[in-house]
Structures are given as C-alpha cells and as structure tokens.
Specification:
By secondary structure, this protein is α+β, with helices and mostly antiparallel strands. The chain contains four helices and six strands, in the order αααβαβββββ.
Length: 152
C-alpha cells in the first residue's frame, strides 16, 4: 500500500510537471493582442512614428532607465522624443519581449508563455502598408497596423 501511495504521488508530480512544461495554455491570442493594442494604441503610435520618421534601426529589449540609450536612438530634447520614451516604458512593462525596428517596419514582440507543444509567438507590426512582406498577418487598422501570430 505504501509503494502504491508513493507511486501515485510520483505520478501526480511528474504528470503536473509534464503538463506545465509541454501543455501549459498560451495567453497570446488574437483577442488579447487586439485588446492590448487598442488599450495602448497611443504608445504604439508614438514609438512607431518616432522610429520610422527618423529611420532608426534598433532592438529595444528592456525598460529605459535614467541615462540609458539604445543603439541608433540619440537623445533629443523634444516632445516627440519624450512621447517615444514614455511609450517604450508603457509597452515594455506589459507582456513584450522586444521592439525591433529596421527603419521602415516596427515590430512589437510579445512574451510567449505556453508549453513547448502549445507555444505561440505574437507581434503587432507597423509599416504603413497594406501587407507585411514574408509574414501572414491580420490587419488591425487600415493605416498599416498588423497582427502576426505564429506557432513555434
């Protein structure tokens, strides 16, 4: 009886750990990303406008600290720069891993939380165009905002 109880405990713990690692549900969904975009739309727009209008190529992966600068982003004393930095703080404190810009397209990449067999990668992309080259996207707006979700 004691061996059966130990085996049952090991099975429950092992099964729970396997579920967590492999089958844990993903929080990235079209509804969540669309709602997040609508909630923080001004921050998204401020960041995308600044990076695209200055043709800045950079990868932002953390919240800005005092004196922190990003590769390609030069400090300037302007309302546009202040809105850009405030937008980064607002977006990066949410579920984002990175903001990547090549000077033409800005991609806001979400943090994936699913198990190994259910992992989804999501991003909001701005390029000002009707399509995004190389990715199958869903249009969020008519002015160049797109939603991209891929399984990985």
């Amino acid at each position: 009886m004691k061996k059966l109880l130990i085996a049952l405990i090991v099975l429950v713990v092992g099964g729970g750990a396997a579920w967590f690692v492999l089958l844990r549900p993903e929080v990235v969904s079209q509804e969540k990303l669309t709602q997040d975009f609508e909630t923080h739309r001004q921050a998204y727009e401020d960041i995308a406008l600044y990076l695209k209008s200055h043709k800045i190529s950079t990868e932002i992966t953390d919240i800005p600290l005092a004196g922190k600068s990003y590769d390609g982003v030069v400090y300037e004393d302007s309302a546009e720069y202040t809105a850009f930095m405030d937008g980064i703080y607002e977006i990066m404190k949410e579920d984002h891993d990175a903001i990547i810009s090549d000077g033409k397209t800005v991609e806001f990449i979400y943090h994936s939380t699913g198990g190994k067999l259910r992992k989804l990668y999501g991003s909001v992309i701005y390029n000002g165009e009707k399509k995004v080259d190389g990715k199958v996207t869903v249009p969020l707006t008519t002015d160049g905002w797109h939603l991209y979700i891929a399984q990985g």
